[in-house]
């Protein structure tokens, strides 16, 4: 397996301030994505940079306007995070590093688990793209797909998912991302979810993706009151690395 690692060094051009996503108003009512991103848009207009979770500019990037002549899809889907931050004028790229290396795939690694599987719920479907599982982590990608004409109620930090093994033991969250909704050619709306969770001990025989309604900084919460079992699904791992 050949790995390629690219690091870009960006320098902020404006003052940097900490700011967390607020998902509800003073009455406890859920805010729309537009309402949640409004402070980040205002920060950009005032030549300020907001970061979340201590070091993340992802939510800030969701509020950046597409450059003139570029469509929303080209800007939010096809343009990398680093390129967005630089083209917006908020950051300057000062250096980059790139390296490649080759490593053997351990015998305990399972690749491409669940590719092509679909889990259908009343209001949307989950199109599972892949999951790679090793003795240290599980990496995955899938899309939540909403019917044509449906506007999904979501925001950049949730609803998210927590992962559990076959015994119901929570797998520690390592990283995760939720892309902006994308309207596909058939009119359906898809949201791409990607993430990694740590595995300790033996490789699981199955992994359950439990939908959760918590917000930023709480991806691995053990508070089951946040779990939405009705929208959860399980991917089974067999010896050939496929879903059953």
Give descriptors for this structure:
244 residues, mainly beta, Immunoglobulin-like, six-stranded antiparallel sheet, four-stranded antiparallel sheet, globular
Write a structural description.
There is one protein chain. With 244 residues, the chain is mainly beta. It folds into 2 domains: 2-97, no CATH class; 118-236, Sandwich (Immunoglobulin-like), CATH 2.60.40. The chain has 4 helices and 14 strands. It has helices spanning 33-45, 58-62, 72-76, 81-87; strands at 2-12, 16-18, 49-51, 91-102, 118-120, 125-133, 137-146, 160-165, 170-171, 173-178, 182-183, 189-198, 206-212, 227-236. Strands 5, 6, 7, 10, 11 and 12 form a 6-stranded antiparallel β-sheet that branches. A 4-stranded antiparallel β-sheet has the order 9-8-13-14, with no helix packed on it. Strand 8 (160-165) and strand 9 (170-171) form a beta hairpin. The protein is globular, with a radius of gyration of 19 Å. The model is unreliable at 216-220 and 240-244 (pLDDT under 50).
What's this model, at a glance?
The protein has 244 residues and is mainly β.
Strand content: 35-45%
Q: Taking all residues together, what is the mean pLDDT?
A: 85
Rg result: 19 Å
CATH classification class of the largest domain: Mainly Beta
Question: How is the secondary structure organized here?
Answer:
Blueprint: E1 2-12, E2 16-18, H1 33-45, E3 49-51, H2 58-62, H3 72-76, H4 81-87, E4 91-102, E5 118-120, E6 125-133, E7 137-146, E8 160-165, E9 170-171, E10 173-178, E11 182-183, E12 189-198, E13 206-212, E14 227-236
Parallel strand pairs: 2-3
Antiparallel strand pairs: 1-4, 5-6, 6-7, 7-12, 8-9, 8-13, 10-12, 11-12, 13-14
């Amino acid at each position: 397996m050949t790995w390629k690692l690219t690091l870009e060094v960006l320098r902020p051009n404006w003052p940097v301030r900490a700011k967390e996503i607020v998902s509800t108003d003073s009455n406890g009512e859920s805010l729309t994505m537009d309402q949640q991103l409004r402070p980040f848009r205002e920060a950009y207009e005032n030549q300020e940079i907001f970061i979340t979770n201590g070091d993340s500019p992802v939510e800030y990037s969701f509020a950046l306007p597409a450059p003139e002549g570029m469509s929303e899809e080209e800007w939010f889907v096809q343009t990398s995070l680093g390129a967005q931050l630089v083209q917006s004028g908020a950051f300057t790229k000062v250096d980059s590093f790139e390296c490649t290396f080759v490593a053997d795939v351990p015998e305990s690694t399972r690749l491409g688990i669940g590719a092509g599987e679909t889990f259908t719920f009343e209001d949307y479907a989950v199109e599972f793209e892949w999951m790679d599982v090793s003795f240290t982590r599980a990496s995955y990608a899938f899309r939540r797909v909403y019917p044509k004409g449906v506007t999904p109620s979501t925001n950049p930090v949730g609803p998210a998912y927590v992962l559990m093994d076959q015994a119901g033991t929570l797998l520690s969250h390592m990283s995760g991302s939720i892309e902006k909704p994308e309207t596909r050619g058939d009119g359906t709306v898809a949201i791409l979810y990607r993430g990694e969770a740590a595995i300790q001990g033996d490789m699981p025989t199955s992994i359950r993706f439990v939908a959760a309604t918590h917000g930023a900084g709480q991806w691995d919460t053990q508070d089951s009151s946040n779990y939405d079992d009705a929208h959860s699904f399980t991917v089974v791992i067999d010896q050939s690395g496929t879903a059953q």
